[in-house]
Amino acid sequence: MKIVRVVIVLLVLLAPSIAAAAPVAPSWRGAGLNIAHWFRYPANPSPAAMDAYLSSADLRWIRQRYQFIRVPIDPGLLTTASAINAVVDAARRATAAGLNIILVPIGNPDAALHLWQILAPSLRTIPASMLMPETLNEPIFSANPQSWNRLQARIVACIRAALPRVTVLITGPNWSSIDGLASLTPPPDAHLALDVHDYEPALLTALGAFNPPLDHQALASLPFPVTDEAACIAVASHTADRPTRAVIAYYCALHPDAALLQTRAGIAAHWAALHRMPLVIGEFGVSAQLNSTARRNWLAAMAILCRQTRAACALWALDDPMGLNLHPPLL
Fold first, then answer.
1. What is the DSSP letter of 167?
2. How many whole angstroms separate alpha carbon 269 and alpha carbon 321?
3. Are 245 and 236 in contact (CB under 8 A)?
4. What would the pLDDT profile of 284-328 be if each residue is shown by its tens digit?
5. Integer distance in angstroms from the first to the last C-alpha of the chain?
6. For residue 207, which phi and psi values (nearest 5 degrees)?
7. Is residue 49 included in any domain, yes or no?
8. Which pLDDT band holds residue 30 (cuts at 50, 70, 90)?
9. How far is CA 191 from the centre of its chain?
10. Inter-residue contact 331 to 323 (CB < 8 Å)
11. Cross-strand pairs, 280
């Protein structure tokens, strides 16, 4: 629980606000928290069990520490009216607890459009100032980003038709990355916000999960920030695996630090300012297996970054080892 308390304290230091863009101006303040398994890979996919995943008391506990939640949704789970109602009830209870809420479909892009066609009209009872629908979680479209631009415009139009007063959260291709902004064309809508995800450097935050054969135990000893390249490279002595030793040397040569994170986030902040949108860093997190000093330093750097860019930032996640790794019931 000590690490959990450290994470919570650091995230309370996050950005005080972002400028709202909606006709009914939402006050998106402070730190946010993703809920990984409410409507995404739930242990029990029945509508009643999904709705009950977080109690109203749990939501009040979260509100004492965070100002908004982001809830990924698997469209494949919302095939019945009762399942749709479970999401609506979750949003109703969250906002009743004082939490702003982002709802975002995951997975197949066409399924996301269909989900918003059926879900958006049901959300009309949720206060527009506390609701931010997001088009899709981490679209890829690396080979054809213009296809994503066209589809995202259709999704925004679908949401807007049902929810004319909300701010809609858009995102770029290439996994909602900062690099994906280079090929993002915003839809023709005056009330949008931008979401990017920030897990840089991924070798540190995810311990090289993108390459399973790497020695992840050795990577867990990596420092952050890197102020002494030789001391950093010495981590390679923890493993006999040559590819792991090579990526450690590459990481150390980059000298990753808070300034590097701020430079990359500045790209997103500039894009958002250019298009007159609030900035949301909808996901960030770092593996609990990383040594505690590096993990604490990385989270502290993110807190400063969020404050400097005036972004609303949401930790991944309440119920995931990249974040708090707490599983309901919380009380």
1. P
2. 28
3. yes
4. 999 999 999 999 999 999 999 999 888 999 999 999 999 999 999
5. 14
6. 50, 40
7. yes
8. confident
9. 20
10. no
11. 195, 312
pLDDT class of 45 with cuts at 50, 70, 90: very high
Task: Supply the pTM of this predicted model.
Answer: 0.92
Phi/psi class of residue 254: alpha, beta or left (left: φ > 0; alpha: ψ in -120 to 50)? Answer: alpha
d(CA 14, CA 157): 32
Radius of gyration of the chain from its Cα atoms, rounded to whole angstroms: 20
Domain containing residue 25: 2-201+258-315
Q: Say if 60 falls within a structural domain.
A: yes
Peptide bond connecting 145 to the previous residue in cis, omega within 30 degrees of 0:
no
Inside any domain, residue 123: yes
Helical packing angle, 109-119 and 145-162, nearest 10°:
10
Residues 6+ apart with CB under 8 A from 183: 145, 146, 149, 172, 173, 174
The count of structural domains within the chain is 1
Task: Give yes or no for a contact between 31 and 11, defined as CB atoms under 8 angstroms apart.
Answer: yes
For the domain that residue 307 is a member of, what is the CATH number? 3.20.20.80
CB 331 within 8 A of CB 63: no
Say how many C-beta atoms besides its own lie within 10 A of residue 182's C-beta. Answer: 13
What tokens does 10 get? Answer: 């650091």
Whether residue 247 is contained in a domain is answered as: no
312 strand-pairing partners: 280
Compute φ and ψ for 76, nearest 5 degrees: -65, -15
